[in-house]
Automatic annotation (TrEMBL):
This is Acyl-CoA desaturase. Residues 51-271 form the Fatty acid desaturase domain. It comes from the Bacteria. The keyword Flavoprotein does not apply. The keyword Oxidoreductase applies. Keywords: Fatty acid biosynthesis, Fatty acid metabolism, Iron, Lipid biosynthesis, Lipid metabolism, Membrane, Oxidoreductase, Transmembrane, Transmembrane helix. It comes from Amnimonas aquatica. One of its GO terms (biological process) is fatty acid biosynthetic process.
């Protein structure tokens, strides 16, 4: 596990920050109860298949409502959704019990804005694994102070505000009412209450919390090393696609986190498939060129770091350096070509001089430049592999 997490430094000592009794009692008692009651019940009674199904289905509904709703829709506005889907996300997001959408999304926007800053990021990993995972919710910290000035859109959203106003009764209804109703329906009340209720709550809590802790510690940084966020395909499996956190922190308005087809991102699949039937729309994607550019910048950094590790008298050193310098020049040239093309395109668009066939020709020219970056990434990978040998 590679990490550049520094020793925890908090604003004041924890003792000066008052305990958040409501959050602390829920977050500490539920895992303890689950650890005792779930196996104990299994010892005396077998769980029915229906109880296991309730665990899997309710976990998935909670998880996807947090990732698709709380996170990508409300915190980042990465797409728009029909009210029916928003209502669904609100109800099952409430069940996940991670505070109201308003509080969650507003503090998440602060996290992106001040990522890693120990005084302003509400769950900065620079204050240690425990703090970023759960500690930040157990006490009232200055860095976690509610400030909705960054969420005027949410303050005007009726579904968000309804949930914020009636949060506690909604949490109780979703966490007790729904499991009890399912339990009675399938004839395994305690099985469903324990697996679909209690165990599901603890599971969905900690898998989401891993995004703030592990996804800032464990994994690779293909797009940027300016913050601690990592890409981690293993975490993506448990978090409905949110493990591609390095990509997410640099391109936060993209509705996708795993951008390649083979990357596990069911939240993206849900949002995209819902757009086919008109339930979601205006799905935002970051331009391919910006993504390629970010990746190449990181590759140059890695190649330079590797070169600097080579022994001074290495026979190939000068040749590698020259090759890298040449590639860098080429990279700058491609970026210049891109800006020029973009300028011409904007100018012509403004003058309304563009015909359909001209638009198409511009598109081809943009694609050509993107292709040059892709090719360069391949060359650079080969060069870096040689240096490592
Ligand atoms: Zn993050
Ligand atoms: Zn985010």
């Amino acid at each position: 596990m590679s990490t550049d997490v520094a020793a925890p430094v908090a604003e004041g000592t924890a003792r000066h920050n008052p305990v958040n009794w409501l959050a602390a009692s829920v977050l500490l008692s539920t895992p303890i109860l689950a650890l005792i009651l779930v196996p104990l019940y299994a010892w005396f009674n077998d769980y029915s298949t229906a109880a296991w199904v309730s665990f899997v289905v309710l976990s998935a509904l909670n998880g996807i409502s947090i990732t698709g709703g709380y996170h990508r829709l409300w915190a980042h506005r990465a797409y728009e959704a029909h009210w029916s889907l928003r209502l669904f996300f609100m109800l099952f997001g409430t069940m996940a019990t991670q505070n109201s959408i308003l509080v969650w999304a507003s503090s998440h926007r602060t996290h992106h804005r001040h990522v890693d800053d120990i005084d302003h990021d509400p769950y900065s990993v620079k204050r240690g694994f425990w703090f970023s995972h759960i500690g930040w919710m157990l006490r009232h910290y200055e860095s976690g102070k509610e400030d909705f000035r960054n969420a005027p859109d949410l303050l005007n959203d009726p579904i968000v505000m309804f949930q914020h106003k009636h949060y506690l009764p909604l949490v109780l209804l979703m966490n007790f009412g729904v499991p009890v109703a399912i339990g009675l329906m399938v004839g395994d009340l305690w099985g469903v209450v324990l697996l679909g209720g209690l165990f599901r709550l603890v599971w969905s809590h900690h898998t989401t919390f891993f995004i703030n802790s592990l996804a800032h510690m464990w994994g690779s940084r293909p797009y940027t090393d300016e913050n601690t966020a990592r890409d981690n395909p293993v975490l993506a499996l448990f978090t409905y696609g949110e493990g591609y956190h390095n990509y997410h922190h640099i391109f936060q308005y993209d509705y996708r986190n795993g951008i390649r087809w083979y990357q596990f991102d069911p939240t993206k699949w849900l949002i995209a498939s819902m757009s086919w039937i008109g339930v979601t729309r205006n799905l935002k994607r970051c331009p391919e060129f910006a993504i390629e550019k970010a990746k190449l910048t990181m590759q140059f950094k890695q190649a330079e770091a590797k070169l600097s590790l080579q022994a001074a008298g290495h026979a190939q050193l000068e040749a590698w350096r020259a090759k890298l310098a040449q590639e860098y020049e080429h990279f700058t040239q491609v970026l210049n070509d891109w800006s020029k093309l973009k300028e011409t395109w904007y100018a012509e668009k403004k003058e309304q001089l563009l015909h359909k066939w001209e638009e198409a020709s511009f598109r081809t020219r943009f694609q050509e430049i993107e292709y040059r970056l892709k090719m360069q990434r391949k060359r650079l990978r080969l060069l870096t592999a040689q240096v490592a040998a």
